[in-house]
Amino acid sequence: IDSQLIKGKFDLENAFFWKEGILVFKKASFQEVVQSLERWYAIEIKVKNPPPNSVRISGEFKKNTYLKDVLESLGYAYNFDYSIKNKEVFIQFKASE
After folding, report:
1. Helix 30-41 with 67-78: angle, nearest 10 deg
2. Whole-model pTM above 0.90?
3. Is the dihedral of CA 72, 68, 17, 27 positive or negative?
4. Is 58 helix (H, G, I), strand (E, B) or coil?
């Protein structure tokens, strides 16, 4: 059996925030944000019209912040609409003008 060890960078500051119940994004890709939200809120996110990889997202949310409030804040800042149905979130970026 051929196994590989894959190394990734460990962000001690983000690990601290996570442990303290704070969700922090510092110039994160939209995909990183999606993955974090899916883990944090135990949901599945589907995206239509994803932004280019050059888009970087920053924000900080406490653990008890409702998912709706996180999406409302990010949606306003990064120009997308969302809907929540059960454990699924649908995000659609608005066309850039």
Report:
1. 170
2. no
3. negative
4. strand
Distance CA 56, CA 85 (A): 26
Residue located via tokens 């190394």: 7
On the CB side of 90, CA atoms within 13 Å amount to 5
**What are the backbone angles phi and psi of residue 13, rounded to the nearest 5°?**
-65, -45
| Centroid of chain to Cα 45 | 9
pLDDT tens per residue, range 23-82? 888 899 999 999 999 998 999 999 999 888 888 999 889 878 999 999 999 999 999 999
- Beta carbons within 10 angstroms of residue 16's beta carbon: 11
pLDDT for 10 beyond 50: no
Task: Please name the amino acid found at residue 63.
Answer: K
- Cα-Cα-Cα-Cα torsion 55, 42, 47, 10, nearest 10 degrees, comes to 30
Residue 79 DSSP label: T
